[in-house]
Write a structure and sequence with these properties.
717 residues, alpha/beta, Rossmann fold, Dihydrodipicolinate Reductase, domain 2, 4 domains, 7-stranded mixed beta sheet, 7-stranded parallel beta sheet, 19 helices, 36% helix, globular
Length: 717
Amino acid sequence: MTAPGVLHTRDTQSHHGIRGPEPNSVRLLHAQHVVITAPPRIRVGFVGAGNMARLHLRALRRVHTPHQVVGVCDKDDRAGREFAELGGTKSYRTLGELLAGARPHVVHVCTSAGSHFEPAREALLAGAHVYVEKPFVDTAAEAAELLALAESQRLLVCAGHQQLRDPAYFALLRRTPDLGDIAQVDSSFTFRPVGANGERAGADALAEQLIDVVPHPLYTLVDALERLVPNHSPIEIASVVAGPCDLHAVLRSDGCYGRLSMSLRARPIASLLSVSGSGGTLTADFLRSSVVGAANPGTSPLEKAGNALVEARQLAVRSSIGVAVRILRQDYPGLAELIGDFYAAVTRADAGGRSPVSPDHLRTVTTLFEELAATIRGSARAVVQRRSPLPRRSDGGGPLVVVTGARGFFGRAITQRLAQRGYRVRGISRRVETEDPNVHEWLALDLSRSAPAEAFAGAHAVVHAAAASSGGFDAHERHTLDATRNVLRGMQAGGVTRLVYISSLSVLRPPRTPWEEQNENTPLTQPDERQFGPYVWGKANAERIVLADAPAAGIETRIIRPGALVDWTNPDPPGLLGRRLFGPWHLGFGRPALPLPVIEVGKAAAVVAWIVAQFADAPPVLNLIDPAISTRRHLLNEFRHHGWRGRFVWFPILLFTVLVQAARYALALPQLRRPAPFALYGMLRPRRYRSTLSERALERALQQPAAVEPSLTASVV
């Protein structure tokens, strides 16, 4: 293989393994057709434009192999266009159009888990190398087909196993010769379920979250065993015990054992790989990108005492450096390095370049992953079957209410209260949860894409509680604003005329004076004010959409703006109150006597169900707070009454916002940019609310359902 930039004749030019059209990088030197070439620029395409694809795009800034992003496709057109704008490229409607129009050399498959096989296969058939996010594919058969296809096409395949290029993993491997004969490798991973309602999810949903994160600790464990076990013996599962939230497996390879331990419940969050041998133990910490361990047998009295001191120093120094580097780079450690190694291998593919993640490794990991995933899913089904079936709250003969976001924290409570009132509930969510006894039928829909009339057909009313709870402005544009527009269109097409829209108290503009008392007539934040963050921006503009578009569609609306929702069964201080620091200690914003608008989630759901039942008499807008919990001190006392044992250190809000803004500017300075405006003080400053209407609504809602209830509309001031 001729090195980039050296002389060679045209008839022996290899193009460094990259197929397809070449850039104008060839310069004729003299009449004998001797040319010099610069390294060709790799043409990169993306299928999938979600968060992981954006992390890839950010990591590409640190990839030195010349490359250019030439296209993206996503089933969500808006997401594709937004990604294309970020990457300075073009959005295509389908992968076929991307492959034909952009002719990429490499395709990054960043679609959701479980949907990697088809786009990877299509890209390989079109002659592109593929980088596939984890999990590579779901079955050993799919892995075998893709790898065989890649071999026949002389193409390379890489999976998103970026921890194999994490500096901590390299440091661990460099020091393993000091450990003597390797006896075992332990891979431990603890993780918090994603989403505000993750820990309350059903067994099936938790099992899928566990399966989604299995590849990371599994592939590092497999790679370590492949490298450290002599004779390269096959790796097999010796034993496995699993539940919806936990996985414990023992792998065996020629007398060496690998232990895989995962949990969605254990804390703290951790990702560790330990190698133990006759000479000691070393542990790679992937969260802090550091290695800890004295690497000695620890049998002498001096070693027993000294090891703790050595490891304490390592934790203090290496962990601090590793966390600082991760914050400054703002991407996954090892991701840019793995992509860079893959691109370098692509440029050498015609001369035998090899993927940094070998086909044999991918076959082994996928085979083990398939078996472990099946065990986890089987355990989840067994849990569901063992549970005594919970009776439905009604026989399903009452009026139908459609609840969007029915799997969410608030959505679950709303469906329970509706079922208690005798309604038949149809839940809409991107993923269904059949274990919920309060939902009589489920529809799996992505409301940001469509909301067909059939989803709302026959409904007495719709409770629209679905919204983005995290992500940037693009996520809230899709899952809050677009979803609300689609719900209104679907209701109009389905002939449903009653909508209860769940907004938030945070949409109100900040008070102009410390003594201002806000109420249902207080204006919203300005439509273009993004300084309050994506959530407030999305909720406020979604409320505007409801107020502007619903009347034209013949839809009556009731808007509920709950304060911070709390759950006494799982006390967790809301964000407006403060942030958890360490152990039981929290940083509190302000002082205990300041007001804080909160409401218990069950009470808030009871008000929503009452408004559905008494729609005609309910107020058009309701700021929903619990007047019995008026200050931060009252809330903490209530938490302690329900078993919470936290402690708060109070900090002035103004000083906190000044320090945060200073930190934001300091982090932006190395990149020579100015941080986006962020009205943190406007978000945290205490507000006073008129609670008369809320108090009356709570009183009515918590009574036994009545045939007719008096109107509250006249109470709006």
